[in-house]
Amino acid sequence: MAATQKAAGQPLDELMMAMDVVDTLRHDEALVQRELSGTDRDAQLIARLRDIYASQGIDVPDHILKQGVASLKENRFVYAPPKAGLQRFLALLYIRRMSYARVAAFVLTALVVSLTAWHFLVTAPRERAAEALQAELGQTLPEEITRLTAAINAAALDDAVKVQAAGLAADGERALARGDAADARRVRDQLAALDSELATAFTVRIVSRPDVPTGVTRIPDVNQSAENTYLVVEAIGSDGKPLPRRVVSEEDGKEKTVMIWAQRVPVSVFNAVRDDKAKDGIVQDAELGVKLRGKLGIEWSKPVEQGAITEW
């Protein structure tokens, strides 16, 4: 403590000179070991230091040289790192605070961006979808099923169609009760298709064009001795334009949407139409049936058989 107070009271130039002496001693480790190991070592070391500084043209007072030698022994002007502990940790933390602050800012920014992206890309769409589903189950689908059922009951000319609509509506109510939106939509779509079919009216007309055959025949695989006869037909709406129809082929059981199909008919009807066309190349009696508004089935004008094909 006394040495520290003494150093503190020294002029700055003397203190700096003493520090330079200590630094010179440390750089000349061989000199220190040699001079300090002999007898009267302090005097010898001071003399040696005096010669070193004199050779450099520097006049250093003896009391400064003595102070430098004493300081070397006391390890003064030597930096001793603090021991590991809380204080050292806090000091290092303070010194490196800007680096840590930049890292923390980057991590915080990345976290905020990630949370924001998750909210807008995942959480918010999921919440909107859940809200939309609840609205659909609670209002949209029940209203649509009720409306379509009422429209079918008002348009249907056959009680069987009303019974069919009531059955679908009951299926829809059960689907809504258990929260099954997919099944409720399926019922809604079936009711919409039924309502659309009831509102459709057309005439089934035998095709009589040069590029399309009027009739085709098939030999079934299950009975090679038999021959099925078909008339190629199309549905003509009230505006005179052909309408697309969903037809199930009896050959492969597949349902297709087609503009023309071949309806199976008895051989007698097939031959009558063939003879009609043979007269002048035109089928005069081309009407095969009528689909009335409010009915599902076709009222056939000529005898037909169950079955149709979509390719030939």
Q: Topology, please?
A:
Elements: H1 2-9, H2 12-27, H3 29-37, H4 41-55, H5 62-73, H6 86-95, H7 97-155, H8 159-177, H9 181-199, E1 202-206, E2 215-218, E3 228-237, E4 242-243, E5 245-248, E6 255-258, E7 260-264, H10 267-280, E8 287-291, E9 299-300, E10 308-309
Helix pairs in contact: 2-5, 3-4, 4-5, 7-8, 7-9, 8-9
Q: What do you see in this structure?
A:
It contains ten helices and ten strands. The protein starts with a helix and ends with a strand. By secondary structure, the chain is of the alpha+beta class. Mean pLDDT is 85; it is low at 1-10. Strands 1, 2, 3, 4, 7, 8, 9 and 10 form an eight-stranded antiparallel sheet that branches. Strands 5-6 form a two-stranded antiparallel ribbon. The radius of gyration is 54 Å and the shape is rod-shaped. Strand 5 (245-248) and strand 6 (255-258) form a beta hairpin. Helix 4 (41-55) crosses helix 5 and helix 7 (97-155) runs parallel beside helix 9 (181-199). The chain has helices spanning 2-9, 12-27, 29-37, 41-55, 62-73, 86-95, 97-155, 159-177, 181-199, 267-280; strands at 202-206, 215-218, 228-237, 242-243, 245-248, 255-258, 260-264, 287-291, 299-300, 308-309.
